[in-house]
Amino acid sequence: MNCFERRTILGLAASLAIASAGLLPDLAAAQDYPTKPVTMLVGYGAGGQTDLVARGAARVLAEQLGQPVNVVNKPGAAVLSPRAN
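The line above is the sequence of Tripartite tricarboxylate transporter substrate binding protein; the predicted C-alpha cells follow.
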C-alpha cells in the first residue's frame, strides 16, 4: 500500500509540473532564432539545376526566417565538417 501511495504522489507531482509548464508559455517560449544571416552550402558549381533550386529555397527560407540566406557554391564539398574552412 505504501508503494501505491508513493506512485500516486509522484504521478500527481509530475502532472502538476507539466501543467504548470503549459500555463507559463512566456518562460517556455523559444528565443528568436536565427539572429544572423544564414549560409546555405551547395556542393555543386554555380549555374546548374541544383544551384537554381537552392537559390529558390533560400528565397523562401529568407521570407520565413526573416533573415537573409546566402547561397555558397563549393563544388566537390559533399562532406563538410566545421573544420573544413
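Note on the example: The longest helix spans residues 2-23. The chain has two domains: 1-29, 31-79.
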